[in-house]
Design goal:
With about 350 residues, this protein is α/β, with parallel strands linked by helices. It is about 30% helix and about 25% strand. It is built from eleven helices and 17 strands.
Length: about 350
């Protein structure tokens, strides 16, 4: 088939590669414009644009596709059979959705309708979902409301962070899109309602629907008065950016384990061994209870302790285990979340 691909982040690259490898003709790629990033404030192309250039595909970078009729017309002239959208980052207007004869299809990185909207991968981890998955959805005017053609579920590991989960889901998205394209091609063109009926799509229920709201700066700040499991989910879900204060400097937490006995089978060998050594509520929240040269810092929360396995102090490289203990010059009794400034100032930084 002739496919126009829409995508922006690294998550979308495996889908682009999978469609090319499956023998489809990519007539073009639509992605977000280059953005200024890094200390040099240089213009950097999106990961999808970089890959499209490598594949020698035509690239379109509309700032706001709904406000650019000339770009819309140029895309229509490409004569694509189908549009495939994976994390593009803009809402497609009705006129664009109506262009391809076989419809617009979205590879969505969550189970629908569990998580609609931005950041479904992060929110599945933040909320402690035990499973997630990928849905291939027919696009319509509503936000992630279209009927689902294909869906695959995968379990979420307790110690899996957002980058690791996104990597698994991104490859699964590519696999399902290839499968979906075969089914869509077999049904062929025609009135949308008839095409969808022949495809046997599943209409989304409103029951269990959750909207994944946009994250803000305050979401990344760790509150040590919360339970260890909630803090751990925050660290894994917002990897690599959840942070606290260490002697007045920002400390990013990169890998943790909640030392909760009932989770023992899901913990590392070191984490499971440390469980139960400190009763629930030992020490003031945020206090370093112990140092373990193999694993890192054991820190008090509102209940069971949290093990900090890897972290990155502001201006330093990421460290784990004994290296982290030495970098922080940590001692039992030290307190996280305190120092120059206060938590509200850190959240707004």
């Amino acid at each position: 088939m002739r496919i126009l691909f829409w995508g922006t982040p690294a998550y979308a690259v495996p889908s682009l590669d999978a469609l090319v490898a499956a023998g489809h003709t990519l007539v073009g790629v639509v992605t977000q414009p280059d953005r200024r990033r890094g200390r040099g404030n240089q213009l950097v192309p999106s990961p999808v644009k970089q890959r499209a250039v490598e594949l020698q595909l035509p690239v379109f970078t509309p700032e706001r596709i709904r406000r650019e009729p000339e770009c819309q017309a140029a895309l229509a002239r490409l004569g694509a059979d189908v549009y495939v959208v994976v994390a593009f980052g803009q809402i497609l207007p009705p006129d664009v959705l109506a262009q391809p004869p076989l419809g617009c299809w979205n590879g969505h990185g969550s189970l629908l309708p569990r998580w609609r909207g931005a950041g479904p991968i992060q929110w599945s981890l933040l909320e402690g979902d035990r499973e997630t998955g990928v849905g291939i959805m027919a696009m319509e005017a509503g936000l992630d409301t279209g009927p689902v053609l294909l869906e695959r579920r995968i379990p979420i590991g307790l110690l899996e962070n957002a980058h690791q989960l996104a990597r698994r889901l991104s490859h699964l998205t590519g696999e399902l899109l290839v499968e979906a394209m075969a089914a869509i091609a077999a049904v062929g063109p025609g009135p949308e309602a008839e095409r969808l009926q022949r495809l046997g799509v599943r209409t989304q229920s409103q029951e269990g629907m959750t909207y994944a709201r946009q994250l803000d700066k305050a979401d990344y700040l760790i509150d040590w008065n919360r339970p260890a499991l909630a803090i751990h989910r925050q660290v894994m879900g917002l990897y690599p950016a959840a942070h606290s204060l260490w002697r007045g400097r920002r400390l990013k937490l990169l890998a943790t384990e909640p030392l909760v006995a009932r989770l023992g089978e899901q913990l590392s060998a070191e984490g499971a061994e440390l469980c139960g050594r400190w009763p629930s509520g030992s020490g003031a929240a945020g206090t370093v209870l112990a140092l373990d040269s193999r694993s890192g810092l054991v820190v008090a929360s509102s209940g069971c302790p949290l093990l900090i396995r890897e972290a990155q102090l502001e201006g330093k490289r990421a460290c784990s285990g004994q290296g982290l203990i030495q970098q922080l010059d940590a001692r039992p009794g030290d307190q996280l979340g305190q120092g120059a400034g206060n938590l509200s100032e850190l959240a707004g930084a």
